[in-house]
Specification:
By secondary structure, this protein is an alpha/beta fold. The protein has twelve helices and 14 strands. The protein folds into two domains: 130 residues, Response regulator (Rossmann fold); 202 residues, Methylesterase CheB, C-terminal domain (Rossmann fold, 3-Layer(aba) Sandwich). The protein has a seven-stranded parallel sheet with strand order 8-9-7-6-12-13-14, sandwiched between helices.
């Protein structure tokens, strides 16, 4: 090794060590998680407790980067305590690891909707082994690497500082990790009178989609459908991409309809936000509105460029409120964001605008 190579290696900063709080009522599980975490050079166990109350007390006195949370706890269960843990964590990401967090399980989607950064099924006694250890550490690394230099908490930007958006006839929203919680906040900020169609591409397995649609319908107070091929885009309804296909738009004589495709995307995601945004630009032009919420990676950045080139607006979630500022950050850092706001403020900004009457409300670019 040359001296120059040696100096170059020494100059590279080592990854910072992230502290983890384990919240699980099983002594065996706490010990097993502790061994896995402490065996790494990247993480350290800051504490291990058996109840939500003990976790809140710990977080009142200590700061950690990750809270590893079981859902089945005595006293206050993990789902009930999750919002309080997020608030007490002051930026800590809550990673749910529970036997109740299976793919497609209601509890899993509820945890994500409440703000959990990720979920993983906890193996039974004697199961999992090396494979579970690898997956757990990989997922922990993804969470801490997503925002390598988190910004300190700051008051949200004043909403009145941003002018109203140009008129639009449809809203298309893309999201991934942390996006369900953000999407919930955005939809709750829309009034019942808001009748512009809403499309949503959220990175989730197909097994989640029926329950996800039902939850969004409840939150938004409007019908929500899982997209089907040739489904018409209609006012006052939400349509979500299925877990197995991209959701595109096709121009019709009197509006627009859905087209499902499954080709490879630049981001590698299926469904991907990019095809939705690109087709939105083609069909609606400047009368489309794109929104990018919390998510890992850069999905949506290519489609956002197509929207801005067509004269449409793109609003993204701010870094302070994002679980992962990958997707919104990619748009904001490229200069393609019309506004950068917290999710509820995005909802209120959208609600200020109404589709203008006339031919444009038929839903296609003229």
């Amino acid at each position: 090794m040359t001296l120059a190579t040696h100096n170059r290696i020494e100059a590279e900063p080592a990854p910072s060590i992230a502290s983890v709080l384990i919240v699980d009522d099983s002594i065996v599980a706490r010990a097993a998680f502790g061994r896995i975490i402490d065996a790494t050079a990247r993480f350290v166990v800051a504490g291990a407790v058996g109840t939500v109350a003990a976790a809140l007390d710990f977080l009142d006195r200590h700061r950690v980067e990750i809270v590893l949370l079981d859902l089945e706890l005595p006293g206050t269960d993990g789902l009930t305590g999750l919002p309080d843990l997020i608030a007490a964590g002051q930026g800590a990401k809550v990673f749910v690891v529970s036997a109740a967090a299976g793919e497609g399980a209601v509890a899993t989607l509820q945890a994500l909707a409440l703000g959990a950064a990720d979920t993983l099924v906890k193996p039974g006694l004697g199961a999992g082994g090396r494979r579970f250890s690898d997956v757990l550490i990989e997922r922990l690394e993804r969470l801490v690497d997503a925002n390598p230099d988190p910004l300190p908490a700051a008051p949200p930007r004043a909403e009145h500082a941003h002018p109203p958006l140009p008129p639009f006839d449809i809203v298309a929203i893309g999201a991934s990790t942390g996006g369900i919680h953000a999407l919930s906040a955005l939809l709750r900020a829309l009034p019942a009178t808001f009748d512009v169609p809403i499309l949503v591409t959220q990175h989730l397995p197909a097994s989640f989609m029926p329950y996800f649609a039902a939850q969004l319908a409840l939150l938004a107070g409007r019908p929500c459908d899982v997209a089907e091929n040739h489904m018409r885009v209609r006012p006052g309804r939400i349509v979500i991409a299925p877990g197995h296909a991209h959701m595109r738009l096709a121009k019709m004589d009197d509006g627009a309809s859905i087209r499902l495709t499954s080709e490879a995307s630049a981001s590698g995601c299926l469904p991907s936000v990019d095809p939705m945004f690109a087709s939105l630009a083609e069909v609606y032009g400047k009368r489309g509105l794109g929104v990018v919420l919390s998510g890992m990676g850069r999905d949506g950045a290519i489609g956002a460029r197509a929207l801005t080139a067509a004269g449409a607006s793109v609003v993204v979630q701010d870094r302070r409120t994002s679980v992962v500022w990958g997707m919104p950050g990619a748009v904001a850092n490229s200069g393609g964001a019309t506004a950068v706001l917290p999710p509820d403020a995005i909802g209120r900004l959208i609600a200020l605008q109404r589709s203008a009457p006339g031919a444009a409300t038929l839903g296609v670019a003229r």
